[in-house]
Automatic annotation (TrEMBL):
Gene3D superfamilies: 3.40.630.30. InterPro entries: Acyl_CoA_acyltransferase, GNAT_dom. GO terms for molecular function: acyltransferase activity, transferring groups other than amino-acyl groups. This is Uncharacterized protein.
Length: 189
């Protein structure tokens, strides 16, 4: 599959929305309302469960316009077939205070969430997105990359943090648990 990996920019907002509003959640409609905003939301004040799909879509559009939501789109023949939400760890509200000693958030790139359209799964899209994120982390001088793959994903959608095997093959090392449901993997850049 000839894919092109491009950064999310305000000019590419339509591609992002096409993926989220279209095929991206065709087999997992229950998660379609997030618009990859969950880790950008300040959960300390509560209220996430009251955020509608329209609220999240509008907030994601605002974040894309302000360039505070960062990541990469996978394009096939000009259309989006994949997305990776990845940025410096300190860009995410949900990861504040989750620093590991010696690995500060301002030195760490976080691979948060993947979305790969069902028709594009199993074709290397997630790996291409991850590789592009790692290259960008290195280019920006970050020292570490982190991710939190599921411990028990039983569906492709359940691997939205990326499969553990993909990270291990790329040289990540398991470094304990992120939560009771997720491993913590880390790569020295």
């Amino acid at each position: 599959m000839p894919i092109e990996i491009v950064p999310l920019t305000p000019e590419r907002r339509g591609l992002f929305l096409d993926l989220f509003d279209g095929e991206g959640f065709a087999d997992n409609p229950g998660w379609a309302d997030c618009y990859c905003r969950f880790y950008h939301y300040d959960h300390d004040g509560g209220g996430w469960d009251r955020q509608s799909g329209a609220d999240n879509r509008a907030a994601a559009c605002d974040m894309i316009a302000a360039q505070t939501m960062q990541g990469w789109l996978a394009l096939d023949d000009g259309g989006a077939v994949g997305w990776l939400n990845a940025a410096r760890k300190d860009a995410y509200c949900a990861f504040r205070g989750a620093d590991v000693p010696g690995k500060a958030a301002d030195e760490t790139g976080m691979i948060a969430c993947f979305l790969v359209a069902p028709s594009a799964r199993g074709k290397g899209v997630a790996r291409a997105l991850m590789d592009r994120a790692l290259a960008a982390f290195r280019d920006s001088g970050l020292k570490w990359a982190e991710a939190k793959p599921s411990k028990s994903a039983d569906t492709p959608a359940g691997n939205y943090h990326g499969p553990l095997a993909m990270y291990l093959k790329a040289g990540f090392r398991q470094d304990g648990d992120f939560s009771e449901y997720q491993h913590l993997v880390r790569l020295a850049l």
